[in-house]
Specification:
The complex is a heterodimer. Chain A is 70% helix and 2% strand. By secondary structure, chain A is mostly helical. Chain A has a single domain, classed as MetI-like fold. Chain A is globular and about 75 Å long. Classes of the chains: A mainly alpha, B alpha+beta. The interface between A and B is medium-sized, with 20 and 28 residues.
């Protein structure tokens, strides 16, 4: 990426940081302080509501010993990967279409891509039940056409969760990929064509590599957001899809085990940090953030 | 067989006609320039030849074959853009090798030809640099090498020097001419810069409003322009109404102003400033001399452009080379001489005014 430093305007200000005070204090009280409390809590061992030890790794040991948590984490990562991949496969062509189309068409596409973000998650999920459910639109139509007697299982499984989430998060892939595509000089692709590259090879050798910054950004964003998936799996997955967030929620609300809940949450944070590090490694190969 | 042959090509975008019934050809090894102001259709024409646009009408031939329906990647043309358009994610060597890879040339052969081409543009030591690590001039030389390494039938250059500093652009022009002669490759250059066109081309096609106004050698276009547009687009020129009697040509009056020609005028002619001679005000008055007052002097270093308002009302530009004792001063009197042979007639005045006398966008 190009060095995007802007000349700072000559504002007569001796304390420019003053403007950051409101947001910085919000950040401290809503993020930094809770995080410290969380980490501290994750090392506390309690039995029956009484603190036994203020520094113990028991909570972390239970994360690895207890197969449920580990399996939930792996399943969450699997879901996140599937969702991010689907977003990319469906979103990339949309971004390419937006790049090629004129102003009005581009706005229309943008509206459709962003509109799920403007809708309440509950409304969205209930609407999907009406479409994907046993007596939903698709199954009724399918049966009406005589294509099947058995209802298609479109929800209360991983597929339902993936459909429900891809629908919203598509925007998080489309927007960065679109931005990356818009930064490509069309003359570069035309050069490749005039040098003998077919349309497919122009895409493969030029367009795709040059849009990788957007691809990586979009994929990472969706993946990381998915690691915290909670509501959609509850509604669209029924009790058949278990994510790590659901486990943590259960620990807090029904087992009142704040210590283990905190430790699991810290583990999720570490996983996200690991994912961001991986994404950076990929990004550097394509000249992002250098 | 010509390298490129354009026959009656027209390109419309909706109601707008970008290229109107254009025909010309490029012979093998010839350097042809499409010269014109922005919006004259020259880039559209280049993109039609390259295969990025389809002509609405007419025929495009490259190397003798009709290519109207041939996609760009099969046309075997080399393309160089104003923006260099290098592959930013590939090092110089891989940029140049791209076309050969697409053609499935063997690796050893690729290495040899890429090496030769980089030496030709004097960038042999930059093979492993990324484009962003090179200067503008170097990048454009890589673009040239990349376009030439596949031995295209024709090299297409779209304003290749416009993004460069003047000095670098001039150096690169000389280098382009050297490489073009050396490989004797047929070339079409699109530019709005007349000095580029005059310096590089075997022939120049001056375009205006989607049409070719005139095609010819640089000398012919400069000395014998067919229209006012060509005359004014190439270099400086004075446009005057003239009276002719036998071999003698005299200035009759200005062109602008009234649409009806003055009685006795027999045409419109141009005079190049370098053919106007300046004399002291008290010089002997002859038929081909005119008295006037200096209105304005522009100092260019090697010369001065002197604008003289003749007593007859016409403004004439003349060039006074630096180095002589006499310095023209604004507001002082002067005598100018224009020999009859220095007038070049470009149009007959009519009562309605010939179309080429319409003030054209420059």
């Amino acid at each position: 990426m190009k060095d995007g430093t802007l000349e700072s305007p000559e504002i007569d200000s001796k304390r420019p940081w003053l403007l950051l005070v409101p947001s910085a204090s919000l950040y401290v009280f809503t993020f930094a302080v809770p995080l410290i409390v969380l980490v501290a809590a994750s090392f506390e061992k309690t039995t029956g509501g009484v603190t036994v030890s203020s520094f113990s790794t028991d909570n972390y040991q239970s994360f690895f010993a207890d197969g449920v948590a580990l399996r939930a984490v792996l399943h969450t990562l699997y879901l996140s990967f599937a969702i991010a991949t689907c977003c990319l496969l469906f979103g990339y062509p949309v971004a390419m279409t937006m790049r090629r189309s004129g102003g009005r068409m581009r706005l229309l596409l943008l509206f459709f891509v962003v509109s799920p973000l403007l809708t309440s998650v509950i409304v969205r999920n209930v609407a999907w039940i009406l479409v994907l459910g046993r007596e939903g639109l698709i199954n009724v139509a399918w049966r009406g056409l005589g294509l099947t007697t058995e209802p298609l299982r479109l929800m209360y499984n991983d597929l339902g969760v993936v459909i429900g989430v891809v629908h919203v998060y598509l925007a998080f892939v489309v927007l960065p990929v679109f931005a990356s595509l818009m930064a490509i000089d069309p003359a570069v692709e035309e050069s490749a064509a005039s040098l003998g590259a077919t349309r497919v090879r122009v895409f493969w050798h030029v367009t795709l590599p040059l849009s990788m910054p957007g691809v990586i950004a979009g994929f990472t964003l969706v993946f990381v957001l998915c690691v915290g998936l909670y509501l959609t799996p509850v509604v669209m997955g029924g009790n058949f899809v278990v994510t790590i967030s659901m486990i943590i929620g259960d620990l807090v609300r029904t087992q009142f085990d704040m210590g283990r809940a905190s430790a699991f949450a810290v583990m999720v944070l570490l996983i996200v940090a690991g994912l961001l590090w991986l994404s950076r490694q990929f990004g550097q190969r394509y000249g992002v953030g250098t | 067989m010509s390298a490129v042959n354009i026959e009656n090509v027209t390109k419309r975008f909706g109601q707008m006609v970008a290229v109107a019934d254009v025909s010309f050809e490029v012979k093998p090894g010839e350097f042809v320039t499409l010269l014109g102001p922005s919006g004259c259709g020259k880039t559209t024409l280049l993109r039609i030849i390259a295969g990025f646009l389809r002509p609405s009408e007419g025929t495009v031939r490259i190397g003798g074959a009709v290519v109207n329906d041939m996609p760009a990647h099969l046309r075997n043309v080399g393309l160089v853009f104003q923006s260099y358009a290098l592959f930013p994610h590939l090092v110089v060597r891989d940029n140049v090798a791209f076309g050969l890879r697409m053609r499935g040339v063997r690796r050893r052969e690729i290495d040899r030809r890429v090496g030769e081409m980089l030496d030709l543009v004097q960038l042999g030591d930059r093979a492993l640099y990324l484009p962003s690590q090179l200067s503008g001039g170097q990048q454009q030389r890589v673009a040239l090498a990349r376009a030439l390494v596949t031995q295209p039938t024709v090299l297409l250059l779209d304003e290749p020097f416009s993004a460069l500093d003047r000095k670098i652009g001039e150096l690169l022009r000389a280098e382009l001419k050297r490489v073009q002669r050396r490989l004797s490759i047929s070339t079409i250059l699109v530019t709005h810069a007349q000095d580029e066109a005059l310096m590089l081309s075997d022939r120049v096609a001056v375009m205006n409003l989607g049409r070719i106004e005139q095609v010819g050698t640089p000398e012919r276009l400069y000395e014998r322009p067919r229209s006012r547009f060509v005359a004014e687009f190439l270099g400086r020129s004075n446009l005057v109404r003239i009276v002719q009697s036998g071999r003698d040509v005299r200035i009759a009056g200005p062109v602008e102003g009234e649409g009806v020609p003055m009685p006795g005028t027999s045409g419109i002619a141009i005079v190049r400033p370098e053919n106007v001679r300046l004399y002291p005000p008290d010089s002997e008055l002859r038929a081909d001399r005119y008295g006037g007052t200096i209105e304005d002097v522009q100092y260019l270093g090697h010369a001065r452009i002197v604008r003289v308002r003749l007593d007859a009302g016409v403004a004439i530009e003349a060039i006074a080379l630096s180095g002589s004792d006499w310095k023209p001063d604004a507001a002082s009197r002067v005598t100018i001489e224009i020999p009859s042979g220095s007038f070049h007639v470009i149009g007959e005045p009519t009562l309605s005014g010939a179309s080429e006398l319409d003030p054209s966008p420059r």
